[in-house]
């Protein structure tokens, strides 16, 4: 019999154990092992059954057991110590507080998903996990950040696999009252309600849930409330669910509603208003329009407000392909961007922000990433290679500039070590190396023997084997109407066999089935009698991606062969809980995307932090960190004739590495059965690579390279009644009006009839400024090695100086072309080329390319 309503009744904890409720209410427990040990002590088996979620756990614990512990002075003292530790953690100065006064007051960090713990399933993959790690590292460093997202009642989806290998999706509904969340309330106790005006006099309402992620507050908007119509209650039903209009409503709510939720929260809590807004991908781009509307309400024009918004906005792109960007029908967006929703904002001004470069403004799709870049003066990709890819992919926004000039930098993603490092590795660091900081421990210390380390690694591998068997047995029982799992499942995998892991989302470019290119060769590798290899594989395909589902089906059917099923397994329903066992249990982490389509790929980072070596295509983070001690590079067959040939060549390289390099090294043992060379590489990976992969390194970079500059620029723009924003908007309008007629009319050179190293190239350039002054432009020679394709390599630039005409001041704008002169010293031999260009110049511009205006000598 089905209930007509379900809700969660929270446990009543004895007063002596009130510390447990306080500790459960802050998600720091998701990465703080001492707190997790405190809860586990209550009932270890139930703790695992409740998936290490203290809120659910306390609701299931036998009250008699809590009463027993409340009478146990030692346990009560332990709980009080942990509570005191949490309170100290929340209030003590940390790294950020040591930076002095010139720092942001608050950063608002917007993301469509946050992966913090499996108990709060508000993530689908890498974007959400990265966002969760960003919050955790910001908390550890004391960065004053507010997270902003949506609360999805059914999260992403739960995955099961049918007997024929097809992915099936379920959407279990979450009860927020049973999660570590609270409602944002007004002083009178009523819930804060965020409202968005919709077409046809409709309104979308949302309440705001708060989660405490250490020192960070995460705000999540939820439309499943009675004040909405039945249709609008479902706006936040599923992550990345529904069609175009449904997704548009989600992104309007995230951006516009999220900005309003931040205003409500800061006003109620006394937290300083954000001076920096960070968009984690383009999904939250509408927050810029909401902020523009607010400034227009304070008396600024759209152009002036845009300068203010851009100054304090950071945009991070995670996609390396245009197909990964949200694009909406222009007419649909126009229908929603009304003056009721955004007072003072003309729809044409708002729509122009999303027009794709080179497209007809009247018909162009509305591109969320393009809008995000136009609303942000500070932008980055998520690895060095992805930064290069992004500069090329978005280069049309800055026409006429080379990719190197495009103002998109890069900060390589990192992972939060306390979340992803296995407790066994933490335990040996504490007991033998004298530190709980696994990320910076001395893993090469003689205090830790190779044998002891290898035993720890085997325990982590055994843990994975047992977990995999348990998951496979549960999946079998679910598939076969409760029947008992067959005995062979209890024998899958072997804790003493080389274990390769592969787990991630399953779009086609990640090539889940590359390993199946030559099935017979893979079989031979798996079943080698002397050096066997086993694979543990997991991943979800988007519900609408049938091609991705077919890849899963192909792999599952391969793994179902009786002679292989103990050597290769596919684990259903990949999530944080599974990942925290999978990464530590693997010896090798496999990653074989189509290069350069992996923006970063942090799963390999998490594996490395748990003593795994990487076996990967040179893509994402691996392209900048690969080293002999850290794993192996799968060569990319970039010159292949087509995709089929490329896959065949790269699969052959993968087999070659497994057969002749990876497996032999793993099974090369000393007299005590320890693979000494393998362990040396793993310990070097932990000692030298792991510190570079941490989310603390990543967040420090965001603070120093993006947040601090953004806060400084925002402060400069808003000072004195937004004087600089008004001035820059007026100057920009004037320059844009004149620029079509700005040209480098003529260039003369001399001094190099027979050029040798050390000679000086003398230049005279005549530039038509069309009424602009010399202070409005920079004229420069751009030079470097001349390549066969008529491009320049190793580019350098040198400014040319205006020649003063008669007695006129240098800043005056004479009639006719203006003369600029300068010299370039030829300091190296070889092919040489140069050109002359003019670009806008203003002290408040961050780069010469910022306005996307350039005039180059023809």
UniProtKB/TrEMBL annotation:
Alphabetical list of PROSITE patterns matching this protein: PHOSPHORYLASE (PS00102)
Domain of life: Bacteria
Cofactor: pyridoxal 5'-phosphate
Segment forming the signal sequence: none
Pfam family, one: Phosphorylase
Chain ranges of the DUF3417 domain: 14-120
Catalytic activity: [(1->4)-alpha-D-glucosyl](n) + phosphate = [(1->4)-alpha-D-glucosyl](n-1) + alpha-D-glucose 1-phosphate
The enzyme's E.C. designation: 2.4.1.1
Keyword tags: Allosteric enzyme, Carbohydrate metabolism, Glycosyltransferase, Pyridoxal phosphate, Transferase
First-tier enzyme category under EC: transferase
Presence of keyword Ligase: no
Family: Belongs to the glycogen phosphorylase family.
Function text: Phosphorylase is an important allosteric enzyme in carbohydrate metabolism. Enzymes from different sources differ in their regulatory mechanisms and in their natural substrates. However, all known phosphorylases share catalytic and structural properties.
NCBIfam families for this protein: more_P_ylases
Record's protein name: glycogen phosphorylase
Native source organism of the sequence: Agromyces neolithicus
